[in-house]
């Protein structure tokens, strides 16, 4: 059942409201086009505020709704959540999986102990995130050091962080559960039946996640409908609806990667990416556009507009799943040793996508 405090309306109303907002934005924008830049910026900011407030009032509310998996049908899931681009916490979504009872360190080390896996390692838990390098006095988009090790070595590093400096996270997003860990497929559903029927397709990717409690996924959005299932531990999500785009700051950063140059000593190394480029190639790695605010400790002096954002928070406990709609911004933390599986279904490039691209263009035009 939905939580009473949550506000929800049909997708038809929400899409009509979005269309009206677009028309209003356009008319007011052109009406104010003969004003000076500061007046135009103020006018657009007020319109963006109205958009965020109406989305919160009519659609997303102030909390994430909940439903028990036994109450879900493909039609209900599609009508109430997918078409409305509405997140929902699904209770007991994966408690029936063998993985829910079997997956732990002992099971993995017995079944996969000598299996080689690629592990992301960072000094602070922030992989694929913005970091400042004091040596160059620059900010970079920094990827983790990726290291091959056995599954047993990975779990040993989690258990003995004093002997294995750095934050270890098994987080490859290349359908690694199917491509690299097929031994575990017998313990889970290869797809989510009610989601597959609702989306009309099977997942593009099925990913396995496990790691250190210090590991953080920095805020970003994906072009996928995401069913995120937690097997053990918990995940904490901070979510922003697509209508918060005007308040979420982006910058472009040169790419780099962490490199452990000695025991526990990591450096930010832009040169670490050179092997990815052919020597004779004319193509260079472009700067990466990335969100530059940390929702855990937002710097309002630098990014004052983030005060206008409407974050939602939800904890996904073991056995539960979160439906995270496409284009929603999300930031993720986890308990130590948390194990999860997520399913990425390709999004539909429909009117919601058109609205979002329109909003992106408007935000860019007033900066």
UniProtKB/TrEMBL annotation:
Gene Ontology cellular-component terms listed: cytoplasm; nucleus
Domain of life: Eukaryota
Name of the top EC class for this enzyme: oxidoreductase
Compartments, as annotated in UniProt: Cytoplasm; Nucleus
PANTHER family xref list: BIFUNCTIONAL PEPTIDASE AND (3S)-LYSYL HYDROXYLASE JMJD7, HYPOXIA-INDUCIBLE FACTOR 1 ALPHA INHIBITOR-RELATED
Major place of residence: cytoplasm
Cofactor: Fe(2+)
Keywords in alphabetical order: Cytoplasm, Disulfide bond, Hydrolase, Iron, Membrane, Metal-binding, Nucleus, Oxidoreductase, Transmembrane, Transmembrane helix
The protein's name: Bifunctional peptidase and (3S)-lysyl hydroxylase JMJD7
Transmembrane segments: 12-30
InterPro entries: Cupin_8 (IPR041667), JmjC_dom (IPR003347), RmlC-like_jellyroll (IPR014710)
GO molecular-function terms, A-Z: hydrolase activity; metal ion binding; peptidyl-lysine 3-dioxygenase activity
Domain JmjC intervals: 170-362
Pfam families for the chain: Cupin_8 (PF13621)
Record keyword Transmembrane helix present: yes
Enzyme Commission number(s) of this protein: 1.14.11.63
